[in-house]
Write a structure and sequence with these properties.
By secondary structure, this protein is of the alpha/beta class. Helix content is 45%, strand content 19%. It has 13 helices and ten strands. Helix 2 runs parallel beside helix 3 (87-104), helix 6 (165-175) packs across helix 7 (182-190) and helix 10 (242-267) runs parallel beside helix 11 (283-294). The longest helix has 26 residues, at 242-267. It is globular. Bound molecules: 5'-O-[(R)-(carboxyoxy)(hydroxy)phosphoryl]adenosine (KG4) and zinc ion (ZN). 5'-O-[(R)-(carboxyoxy)(hydroxy)phosphoryl]adenosine (KG4) binds at residues 13, 138-140, 166, 169-170, 181-184, 187, 277-279, 281-282, 309-310. Substrate binds at residues 136-140, 170, 183, 187, 282.
Length: 342
């Protein structure tokens, strides 16, 4: 018999995503983004995001169904991100999922956004070896997770205590006058620069910090250090070497992220590291993670960039795993939970 056809809805931030998956196979991944509407604010504006989801949700649904050449009646289950994320944005997806589920008599699964970022890797690389360590790095989160079981056993090991990694990229790009979102621009700019030219701080790596924050991250001190360095240059009337600053900043972020991720693998006797979230698209992060993991026989799995950023496919991917594991669906009154724990 065919594996179940699962539709996933993602609206936790600024991307309206609807994906359709059968087993581990991606059939459709329709996306509408409000990123351009937030650009002039230098960050996502919750109210603007919610309105954009409302306008986009029905047409995106239609595009996904068309792309997969199926109708709503063919779908076996609907998964939706029910948290964590922006409350108003989440509500749009959850309300839509309930509406479609009720109209077409389908089970609905409320899923965790972070677990979905991990699950999406199965669409690219097949079943995830468990246990695995997952590092999720995006504009909204920076976490290290121990994944014993994707469907019901994901334990947080650490997270950022201030800015998320992507947020740091965005803020540094802004202070360098490079535009939003900053990650891809810094990634490109850094290619022309020397990553060893400026010694920026590595947050929470000093022995005294490691005791309480072994697997936590901190990027706000780094952002401030970059700002001070740039200000000092400007005060001295000297030009700011944008490429060198970008490369040195990026190196500091990637150094800490990969060092802690590999340490988490080694401490837990884990051989597989999955990296997800928008920052996983970073070219230096990929190279450094591979380099360091190889020394310890650890396999690094990073989905292609389009699957790393927020999308509907990741929600469908996790929904597909939940259905396959025989997990009971959510109740139709499932809430949106902006602070949903794992
Ligand atoms: O996962 P995502 O699309 O949305 C959130 O849940 O936040 O991640 C977006 C973040 C932004 O901060 C963006 O600057 C960052 O991911 N990003 C990157 C790169 N591409 C996107 N950061 C560093 N290097 C990149 N190539
Ligand atoms: Zn995300």
């Amino acid at each position: 018999a065919d594996e179940p056809l699962v539709l996933g809805i993602e609206t936790s931030c600024d991307e309206t995503g609807i994906g359709i998956v059968r087993g581990h196979t991606l059939l459709a991944d329709a996306l509408a983004s409000s990123v351009d509407q937030h650009a002039r604010f230098g960050g996502v504006v919750p109210e603007v995001a919610s309105r954009a989801h409302l306008e986009a949700i029905v047409p995106t649904m239609q595009r996904a169904l068309d792309e997969a050449k199926v109708t709503l009646a063919d779908i076996d289950a609907i998964a939706v991100t029910s948290g964590p994320g922006l409350a108003g944005a989440l509500l749009v997806g959850v309300a839509a999922a309930k509406g479609y589920a009720l109209a077409a008599d389908k089970p609905v699964y409320g899923v965790n956004h972070l677990a979905a970022h991990v699950a999406v890797d199965t669409l690219e690389h097949g079943p995830l070896p468990e246990p695995a360590i997952a590092m999720l790095v995006s504009g909204g989160h920076s976490s290290l997770l121990l994944v014993d079981d994707l469907t019901n056993g994901v334990t947080p090991l650490g997270a950022t205590i201030d800015d998320a990694a992507g947020e740091a990229f965005d803020k540094v790009a802004r202070l360098l006058g490079l535009g939003f979102p900053g990650g891809p621009i810094i990634d490109r700019t850094a290619r022309e620069g020397d990553p060893a030219s400026i010694a920026f701080p590595r947050g929470l790596t000093a022995p005294k910090d490691l005791a309480a924050h072994r697997f936590d991250f901190s990027f706000s001190g780094l952002k401030t250090a970059v700002a001070r360095w740039v200000e000092a240059r400007e005060r001295a009337g000297e030009p700011v070497p944008i490429a060198d600053v970008s490369a040195s900043f990026q190196e500091a972020v990637c150094d800490v992220l990969t060092a802690k991720a590999i340490e988490a693998c080694r401490t837990n006797g884990v051989q597989t590291l999955v990296i997800g979230g928008g920052v996983a698209a970073n070219s230096r992060l990929r190279v450094l993670a591979e380099e360091r993991a190889a020394k310890h026989g650890i396999e690094v799995r990073v989905p292609r960039p389009a699957l790393c950023t927020d999308n509907g496919a990741m929600v469908a991917a996790l929904g597909s795993r939940l259905v396959a594991a025989g997990v009971a669906p959510s109740r139709l009154d499932l809430p949106a939970d902006s602070a949903m724990p794992l």
